[in-house]
Amino acid sequence: MSRLTKGGWAAALVVLLVLPLYLTAPWLKAGQFMMVGAVGAIGLTLLSGQAGQLSLAHAFFVLAGATSYTVLAAPPGGDLIGLGWDPLLALIGAVAVSAVLGLAFAPVAGRLRGIYLGVASLSLVFLGLYLGQEATSLTGGTSTGRPPAVFELFGFPFSDEGGLAVAGVPLGETERIWYLFLALVVLAYVLARGAVTGRVGRAWRAIRDNEASATAMGVDVGRAKAGAFAVSSAYAGLAGVMTVLWFDILKPDESEFGTYGINISIAYLAMAIIGGLGSVPGALAGAVLVNGLPQILALYSVDLGWFGGTGEGAFTPVLVGSLVYGTAIVLIVLFEPGGLAAIGRKFTQPRRRQA
Amino acid sequence: MTELRVDHVGLRFGGLRALDDLSFTVAPGSLHALIGPNGAGKSSCFNVIGGLYRATEGTLTFGGTDLRALRPHQRAGLGMGRAFQNTALSPHSTVLDNVMLGRHALTRGGFLSCALRLTARQERVHRARAAEICDFLALGDVLDSPVGSLPYGRAKRVDIARALAVEPSLLLLDEPAAGMNAAETAGLAGTIQSVSEGLGISVLLVEHDMNLVMGIADRVTVLDFGRVIADGPPAEVQRDPQVIKAYLGTEAQT
Amino acid sequence: MNTFVQLSVNGIGKGAVFALLALGFVVIFKATEVVNFAHGSFVMFGGYLVAATRDTLGWAGAAALGIVCAGLLALALERLLSRSRHADPFSLALLTIGADVVITEEIVRRIGVSVPFIGDGWDGHPVTVGGITLFRTHLVALAVATVLIGAFFLAFRYSTWGIRIRAQAENREAAALAGIRSSHVTAVAWLVAGALAGVAVLFIATQDFSGAGLSRGTHSIALAAFPAAILGGLDSTAGAVVGGLTVGLVDALSAHYISFTFAKSAVFLVMLVVLVIRPAGLFGTRETVRV
User: Fold this and answer.
1) What's the ipTM?
2) Of A142, A87, A101, which is closest to residue A260 (Cα–Cα)?
């Protein structure tokens, strides 16, 4: 990385660390939602962009992570199952459960190519929908759902407790969650970059580009694919934990269009595509657009009085967001398949040495 | 001993016999060519050796190890490197990155090791070696260029470099001169010879270009309709009437 | 036992509609090698036009308009796809995902909270035959689908277009060399697929079939075309019909015997099972990779 780029990232990080002192809670919530997207998108771009395995199952693993965290960290006793784990362990557990589920799907996925895999992966979302509704002792059911345990780090609660303040600005739940999510995004990003530039990333790309030659070079294709699924599902599971902390409730969907539905799988895929399939920084940019736009629009609409209507013909923020990212996918595929990452590279490296 | 023995190998696709009672041996350190008219079964033979297809009869041993007992991806670890007919490289990745793939069997590390940068030292060591191999093949100046931007001839060298990165004792080259002009082919011949003689690596080469083959090969095996019809030094094979008949379709006029 | 027969017959009726969708899907795949994730939006578009013009044009007129326009939308998408310089099927499939989001969201916006019934051109009362109650919609669907599918197969086998598209699917280059205008063949393929989707929506968005009119749920129902086409084999038109009927049956039976929500999963699970046993679908051709 050039000095300029390093400086850029450092500056961005400083800004992100300082923002809670300046922004009000609704804005922080919007930023947090982008961070949730970022973690999920990174995982999907690794699976679909690096390893070339198209997956529409992401929402299922998000649900798995969300449910696991809630169940593991909830206090035992009562109608709903809870194991009373420490929230940090519950988070790790949720990620592990999602990874294991990803591993479980891998052998099935391994037998399928390209687009067959994409459609087959849809089946998991429907399965998740069904299980979410049926396993009410785990999920709380579609009408009530259940609240997640307050996240704690070695006893420090991520809630309004404790009256913490910095430079006169109180650091309540929203601010603390901001820092938690930021740390998770940074972790997710750094780990992913390590993988992409290392041996495992090379093996994934080899599988994506030509399985036969990857095999000839010594890559155990089945095992590498399984690894990619496990990693991607782990990321999705983490995004699920973040999702449930953001909504402050675990509520399974009533239809295939909801918080854990096909639309979410497509949204994550959109983030990866718009960012540039396979690019980890691109996934961040994609998440800011896909998850951020509706949030920002909703906030501005309060100021500007847009989106007044509901009912027929209303352009809600979510709808506008969907139209934008749907169009973005079309434009990206047609004109710049490398996505925002490629566009960004054109600005930072205007002259590439051609051999 | 890094000898490749193909022993009475047969390959059947349903009713079609692609290979029939194939036997030949690649002596260690030799440059062995596999030739034959189109459809003779050269690619099938290669794919059986490489593990892409399972032989329906016969045995294959490499350095004493029974290849039929191995899973396809285990060949690299055994010292078998392969370059492909259509290069099969990752066009968007750099030359060095592509060559580094060849080091896969010589390195370790899954997601967590790489993510936590535990493999940093290993990366450095192997990158240096990969750069050395690229230098050997006159690719030192394009290490960081995307393979897709290279001219065809240079891309083929990257493919060979990648196969060499496996540190093979046997190098399988699948029609390396395909699509090359006379000058490029001559250059390629020199490269293959320096690999074989200079590095002492056995080379098994599938080729159509007769000049290339006859010029550099130590031994030639000729296939036709999935069978071996001649096997010996180039000069001998060239004179063999069966070979002439297979290529020209008529009895040679003496 | 009666219930079982009733469910089966109704299931086949539903299956006939899915077969129409799956058939269009497969035709597109044969023509362009693209998995068209926007198929649901064709359904929505056709249905929207019927709902919007029903009062002015009457049901038959609106239906005809819907069918034609659904075909034209498909054609428009095909034209867009052909503009892409990066022709690989994976990217094009992604493009159709984007298109599907845009088209479907816009239509859902226009529909809003109302769930317009597009009505039916036949009397909606159920028919009782030998103690079994059958939904009239399903019977009409079965009849219409049989006629359309039959006509399609005749065209596919014997017409010039049919021969051309099969040749093109077999070997694109050779077909082009033989003078087959790829763009024409492909355009007709998408047009036909869109039109079939336009026909399918006439049955889907009815009380009998989905218990509702046109809504986002219609798009979800149309999604069942994917497993139908895939389990039959993406490049097999016969497979599409078998797949569609299978999906209809599985849907009807599992909705009743297990649960309504599980029915959706059941359809996809059946597809998964088929794929595990035959990775290219029941009648699909296995891809051989040339190294």
Assistant:
1) 0.90
2) A142
